[in-house]
Amino acid sequence: MMAILVDTRLLLRRVKDFRSLMPRRNRVKEKWAATRPKNPPTRLALQHFDATYSVQLGNLWPSVRVALLSERKYGALVNNFSYEAVLANLQAQGCRDFISDTHTETQSCFEQDKAVEADKELGVSMKTSVNNSQQHSALQLSPSIKCVVFPRGDITRFKPARPDMHGLLGYYLMDAASVLPCLALDVQEGHSVLDLCAAPGGKTLVLLQTQAIRFLCLNDVSVSRTLRLKRVLNSYVPKQFLSDEMLRITSFDGTKWAEVESNTFDRVIVDVPCTTDRHSLMEDDNNIFSKSRTAERRRLPQLQLELLLAGIKAACPGGEIVYSTCTLSQIQNLSVVEQAVYLARENHGIHLEVVSLRPLTHMFRKTFHFTPDLQLGEMVVPHLAANFGPIYMCKLKRLT
Ligand SMILES: C[S@@+](CC[C@H](N)C(=O)[O-])C[C@H]1O[C@@H](n2cnc3c(N)ncnc32)[C@H](O)[C@@H]1O
């Protein structure tokens, strides 16, 4: 025993001697290690989520938590503008287009769902203060939007997309659940569309795949992110589809959109900044839970509310608005929609109806896990076998 102690001391002394011989630049920077924050933002995020989501999601939270802390799964949005046989190549790798897979099921699911909803309305009373008789409407999914995923439980990663002979990339990697708010928007031929918080442009690319939009207005308050959006568009869309007559790109504060125009667009997507739950748990850089961003984080629900109200005002009467986030937070999701519906009516005389997205969740129930029985809107929750989301979405229709 004594011999071991002596040996260890000798070894330590040698290490010390060795350190003094090392050039200064190669030494371990102990000072940095000592000042590393005890509670990095990722840990603060996890503490916050544990406290709130265990209450909000109950028994569901432990499995959602494991999925959130594991590697996310991507989908590849097929770029119809590319000149290569992108879809066939991806299918040959074992992927499937989760959207076309469900087209045939659409109508039967819708009928089935109407029956379920009718049963529910007889038995259970809704707790939300918004008039929550969510209107059903059969969704017509654009056949041009294609997004492929590897099968359930298969965590193969996609290779980066390569440019075709015209320099256009064949597919865009994104959370496959992010396609759902765009499908929910239900863009039809000749529509004018506003994407109020558009950068870096994932949802914009989905909307452009429909090739049905007459005029698309893209906005994001951040100038640098707007530049990124332009780069994305140039990498995926031929120049003739990006002309001034078809597209406008701005960097305004979306909350003040009514100062620019109102009662204008057939469709508005309001994909707001949020606590980006996955990113907050995984990356300390640029993390909304860092101490320096506490005020910004606390202000998020108010900003989200103002953005949604601006989107509602920008839509024309009869127009439809989809609100979406990538957080599980009830305060950033349902509460924002409830308040927006109330304030639109009280302060602006705009009456809205909540459009049920239950047909959509039925259609995609084999690909995504949805929170059961959400009172307002729908939410994809992460699951180890299908690690997409979180994505929350709620659709509103302007009646006046
Ligand atoms: C969740 S991201 C949008 C992602 C985008 N829709 C996509 O699919 O790639 C939220 C965006 O809102 C923007 N944003 C934040 N505050 C805003 C404001 N007041 N007006 C407009 N955009 C804002 C952020 O710069 C950020 O790019």
UniProtKB/TrEMBL annotation:
Entry keyword annotation includes Transcription: no
CDD domains per the UniProt record, alphabetical: AdoMet_MTases
Gene Ontology biological process terms in this record: rRNA methylation
GO molecular function annotations of the record: RNA binding; RNA methyltransferase activity
Residue ranges constituting the SAM-dependent MTase RsmB/NOP-type domain according to the UniProt record: 98-399
InterPro entries per record: MeTrfase_RsmB-F_NOP2_cat, MeTrfase_RsmB-F_NOP2_dom, RCMT, SAM-dependent_MTases_sf
UniProt entry keywords in alphabetical sequence: Methyltransferase, Mitochondrion, RNA-binding, rRNA processing, S-adenosyl-L-methionine, Transferase, Transit peptide
Residues the entry annotates as binding S-adenosyl-L-methionine: C197, A198, A199, P200, G201, G202, K203, D220, D253, D271
Active-site residues, as the UniProt record annotates them: C326 (nucleophile)
One cellular-component annotation, GO: mitochondrial large ribosomal subunit
Subcellular location as annotated: Mitochondrion
Catalyzed chemical reaction(s): a cytidine in rRNA + S-adenosyl-L-methionine = a 5-methylcytidine in rRNA + S-adenosyl-L-homocysteine + H(+); a cytidine in mRNA + S-adenosyl-L-methionine = a 5-methylcytidine in mRNA + S-adenosyl-L-homocysteine + H(+)
Family classification: Belongs to the class I-like SAM-binding methyltransferase superfamily. RsmB/NOP family.
Protein name: 5-cytosine rRNA methyltransferase NSUN4
Organism of provenance: Channa argus (Northern snakehead)
